[in-house]
Amino acid sequence: MAESTNRPARPQRLVGAWWGPAVGLSALGFYASATLPADTPTREIYFNIPQGIWAVYVFMSALVGLLVYGFVRHSSLWSIGKPTPGVLRDVPQRLRNAIRLGMAQDKVRRDRYAGIMHWCIFSSIIVLTLVTAQVAIDADSPLDFLHGPYYLFFSFYGDLFGLIGLIGVGMALYRRYFAQMHRIRWDERLEDHLIIVGLGLVLLSGFFVEAARIMVTELEQHPDWARWSFGAFTLAKGLDVFGFEEHQLLSFHAAAWWFHVSMAFGWLGLIVFTRLDHIFFAPINAFFLRTDSPGRLAKIENIEEQEVFGVGFIQDFTWKQLFELDACVRCGRCTEVCPANISGQPLSPMHLIQDLKAHLANVGPAIAQHRHETGDAGREVSPVALIGDVIHDETLWACRTCGACVQECPVMIEHVPTIVDMRRYLVMSEARIPATAQAALENMEMRGHPWRGTALERTTWMEGLGEVPIFDGSQDYLYWVGCSGSLVERNLPITKAVFRLVKESGASFGVLGQEETCNGDPARRLGNEYLFQILAQQLVETFKAKNVQKVITNCPHCFNTFKNEYPQFDGNFEVIHHTEFLAGAMQTGALKATHAVNANVTYHDSCYLGRINGVYDAPRQILELVPGTNLTEMQRNLSKGLCCGAGGGNMWQEEVGERRVNHVRSEEAIGTGADQVISNCPFCIQMFEDGVPAIHPEEEGRMRPFDIAELLEKSVFGETVTAGEQSS
Amino acid sequence: MHIVVCAKQIPDPETPPAAFKIDAATNKVIPAAGIAPVLSQFDGIAAEAALRIKEAKGGKVTVISLGAESAQAAIKQVLAMGADEGVLLKDAAFDDGDSYTTAKALAAAIKKLGDVDAVFCGRQAADWDMGQVGLLVAEELGWPVAIIAKGVEATDSGLKIQRVLADGFETVEMPLPAVVTVSNEFGDPRYPKLPQIMAAAKKTVTPWAAADLGLDAGSVGKAGARLQLQKLFIPEKSSKVELIAGDTPQEQAAALVAKLVADKTL
Ligand SMILES: Cc1cc2nc3c(=O)[nH]c(=O)nc-3n(C[C@@H](O)[C@H](O)[C@H](O)COP(=O)(O)OP(=O)(O)OC[C@H]3O[C@@H](n4cnc5c(N)ncnc54)[C@H](O)[C@@H]3O)c2cc1C
Ligand code: SF4
Ligand code: SF4
């Protein structure tokens, strides 16, 4: 399909696999040099620093010792966590993740500036470490390869990456000290200054050391060699105008060398004490990243036999969940995109992760020791309660499970399962839950749907549609209407539209009518895993008994649950969302959008269809094929789309905070100037129905929310089946 | 303190109007397909009141329901909230009774339990809305009763009750044993914790028939009922719209007032 307007290009690799050519060239140069006579260009290793060699090894041993200490200290904390099921499943995929997300840093690059900056620093550190390693090998092993063309090339790329590193540092300094209110300063600490200023000093001092050496040994003797170290050469030329004596240069060189080497090792030592540890933890966490769908929450196996439900104590997280706390670099990306945070509600995923991390550091050692001594879980060890004291109830309830934080996190932290685990504890172990959410859960228990007080029946939507086929196992598709599609007044026209379109496409299908029950999604996301399992098991049995193979849903939440979560209950069905079905039917010509719908529209990606299940194209294809529609995208779209505010059970909660999420999103939709906001989810539509009038009180010229099926219905049939009812 | 909670299972008050049907021949509500009966809302609140006293003062809570086998679900719900034991009064002889026969059976069961200090009922069952059973149970037992309570507290000598009146509240103190009917102003019932739901699922509910209570089948249910149901029907609803004429809002308002006065609405 053609690119829609305002659509951001897919993230591009900045420099591709930069290290591939680098390694290749090095190998070539290495080979060439090893075969050349020894009087070719070279330099004296440890020039002017007779003690250099032992100093480097002392520093090196200290660093290794420090790293081992750090690892042991951290791992004793992770080890208080529970086992992580399936963490060694799909190893090839995990290795690919470690390379793609950990080394190539696909996520870091989602922010362009940060991506370039980080690449500069990262590649510079890697290359300069290799440079240093080669120096060590050349000096202390029988191998002697730093001479000849390879030496010149080596000098060149050493300088190049030194410079690249300085550019990165410059960008980082600018961002930290001059860019206003940047996300990286939301939780700024002393270490952040140390890291960036320290790195700058290491790189700069490196250039000065080299420049001083060049001034003594090459500037006059071998200017043609010196040129290859172009950075230091330029610096040497510059310093040369001051006409220093050789002994001055030698003392300066020695001082700079000691400064450089101790700074460099000191800086590497920061890995153990600061967020620099992400150098190791990020790729490892990428390896541990789930390989199944982000739309799937973990199943509590044998729930009836458990004693503790969810996570109410830090040691009830899995060790992987504890490990990832340590990977967080406080970059603020998660918080920056969090709909709750954007709306001034009491949730910042970054602070949540950091608070958990601090709590782990506080109480973890005592718990580990208690475990060691008594063998019991040590739930009484902590003087503060994880939930309530460390993480507040309202923080957990504010989450939409929209996955925006997970999507952006450059170190692959999965906030959503962690948040839901704590909700599970609140709901199942503590029964501490906001009244309106409780009412929804009770309603699901008592009535099999979350819509308290509805006056509609599951078959009300069928009125005026003629004969509606009931699914009996002989048809290809089950059209699943869902609770929202049948019990909420606003959604009936959508349900009808999908029905008419599926029928028009000629597909063989049926519906369940009165026999539909809630699929359990709101219960699971609100933390009532027990209720979810009961509802899911029940429905899987119904589907199997009726020989359901393929399901069309008009709700991304039903879609996600059937598709990603029912396999946990041995329910394997082919599930498609109506946008996919309708786009497919239009492609094959089974549905023809003939009537022009003259409308300026904007399209809202629901979280559970878009970000979580990756369906971005089908709805846009439909919009493109409906004559007369003109799509203007919102700034936040596709995988960066902003939640409507209803996800994660927030459809049934009172919002606390400055603004309501649906007001924020409605404002963005209105900002496009479109006269219709099109979506694909009954919750989103309800949120817009409520949010748009709040932002645009005058009825005149007010944008209207529609499901994409309603739009298509107009185009296929010329009019909606409910048009008469609506105008009366 | 041993408190008995009387809990009734009723047809779901949130049954969609279109699904609510009456069998004119038998004068009975036809249970709506796929809509399970529920615990009467006020009885969950009565249970909450009892459980709070148990938490404050210790003791035990027993839940009793008179009804069909399905009423087990209502009993389990109160057990899941934290009640200790459940009793189901189930007997064909209880069928088609009225508030009086229900109270009689409940009172007999309470006497059989023996060591009961207080009985908590809902202010009214949310189906028939009679508001009789609590009072009649008290009558049968010969205990004092306080109705429509918004606050219930155990004191050293008995209970301190805050009652809802038409124009305010009043606080009364009563000795034990006593009967209290609890109103929605008390607050919401708790959401059960999962471990308790599981424990409740494992508990067995004691079934008692009329004979277990020493009640003669002829004195309960339809045979013992004093209330005769004449006709059960859904009222016909009709609406007439009359547009009030007038050129300005002021004129329309004046015409409306005149009309309301003429109709004796005002
Ligand atoms: C002619 C007639 C026919 C009826 N037929 C049936 C029938 O077929 N099936 C049926 O279930 N009901 C039937 N009823 C309802 C009948 O059983 C009683 O009216 C009912 O049990 C008392 O309810 P109430 O609405 O009067 O209670 P209220 O007096 O309004 O109830 C107050 C409180 O008393 C307690 N309570 C009331 N009833 C019970 C109970 N059953 N178990 C435990 N605690 C209770 C509760 O705490 C409740 O909150 C019929 C009533 C009449 C008049
Ligand atoms: S899932 Fe969405 S709402 Fe929840 S913390 Fe992440 S970004 Fe915020
Ligand atoms: S959780 Fe991830 S995105 Fe959020 S601050 Fe930490 S590293 Fe950044």
Structural write-up:
The complex is a heterodimer of chains A (728) and B (266). With 728 residues, chain A is mostly helical. Chain A folds into three domains: 23-31 and 90-286; 292-432, Fumarate Reductase Iron-sulfur Protein, Chain B, domain 2; 438-717, no CATH class. Helices cover 54% and strands 4% of the residues of chain A. Chain A contains 29 helices and eight strands. Chain A has helices at residues 19-34, 52-78, 91-103, 112-140, 148-177, 190-217, 223-226, 230-240, 246-273, 278-288, 319-327, 333-337, 339-342, 349-374, 393-397, 404-408, 415-429, 435-447, 482-487, 492-504, 521-526, 529-545, 556-565, 578-587, 617-625, 661-671, 682-695, 708-717, 723-727, and strands at 477-480, 509-510, 550-553, 574-577, 599-603, 629-631, 676-679, 704-707. In chain A, the strands form two sheets. Chain A has a four-stranded parallel β-sheet with strand order 2-1-3-4, with helices on both faces. In chain A, helix 10 (278-288) runs antiparallel to helix 11 (319-327). With 266 residues, chain B is an alpha/beta fold. Chain B has two domains: 2-224, Rossmann fold (3-Layer(aba) Sandwich), CATH 3.40.50.620; 236-266. Chain B contains seven helices and 13 strands. Chain B has helices at 41-57, 72-81, 99-113, 133-141, 194-202, 221-224, 249-262; strands spanning 2-6, 9-10, 21-23, 28-30, 38-39, 60-66, 85-89, 118-122, 145-154, 158-165, 168-175, 178-182, 206-208. In chain B, the strands form three sheets. Chain B has a nine-stranded mixed β-sheet with strand order 11-10-9-12-8-1-6-7-13, sandwiched between helices. In chain B, strands 2-5 form a two-stranded antiparallel ribbon. A two-stranded antiparallel ribbon of chain B has the order 3-4. In chain B, helix 2 (72-81) crosses helix 5. Chain B is globular. The N and C termini of chain B lie far apart (52 Å). The A-B interface holds A 304, 307, 309, 427-431, 433, 435, 438, 441-442, 446-447, 452-457, 460, 514-515, 530 and B 12, 14, 16-19, 33-36, 38, 188, 190-195, 197-198. Bound molecules: flavin-adenine dinucleotide (FAD) and iron/sulfur cluster (2 copies).
